[in-house]
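ARCHIVE CARD
Drawer: 12
Card no.: 0347
Subject: one protein chain, sequence and derived structure
Cross-reference: see card 0346
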Amino acid sequence: MSFTYNYKQPDEYHFSLDSIQLAQFVATHLKFHPAPGSLRILDLCAGCGVIGMELSWHLQAIRQIDFVEIQDIYTEYFYQNLAHINRPELQFRWHLLNYEELHTKKWEGRFDLIISNPPYFQPGHGVLSPSEFKNRCRFFLDSSFQSYIQALENSLADAGRAYFLLRPLEHHGIDLFADLHKLLKEKPVAIKKIARIRSTDLILLEK
C-alpha cells in the first residue's frame, strides 16, 4: 500500500497501517456528504497527525481539523508533516493535552466527526517495553479506557459520528465492546462494529 504523504515520525515508534486504512474507510463513508468542508473534525490520540492528514488528502474539501495528543514528542513531527503537505488553506490546530480534558464543558458537543486510533491494551495485559514512550502509545497509561470513551461521548455533537479502532482482547478475558455498551447504556448513542481493519474492530458511535 502506498502512502499519500511521506510522514515524519519518531524512530522509536511508527504508526501502523491501521491508521492509514482507518482514514481511507472514513473518507469512503463521507464520500457523498453534502458539505464535508463544514464538518468540525477531531483526530483524537493523534500521534504525528497521520489519520487527519490522510483524511484531508482523500477529501480535499476538508479545511479544519483539531488534533489532540498527550505526548509532546509528537509536536515537532506534526508540524513537520503539516509543512510537508504545504496546503495553506488548511486550518489544523494542535492541542497537547490529556483527553480527560475533553470531559469539560469547554469541549462539550464540539465535533461533528471524531476519528481515532487509541492505545490498544490495558495495563497488565501485554509485555511492557523498556521505553516509556512506546508503552504510552500502546497502553492506556495516561488515563483509562473508560475516560477515553467519556471524552468521545462528551465532545461529539448531536448527530455526530465517531470512528475508532478497538482491539479485541478476549484472550485476556476482556470484552471491550461489551464494556463500551455498559459505559454508554444511559446515553443517547448508537454503537456498532462496522468493519475489521487488520484484526482490529472499527467502531462507529453515533449520537
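Annotation on reverse: The longest strand covers residues 156-166. The longest helix spans residues 17-29.
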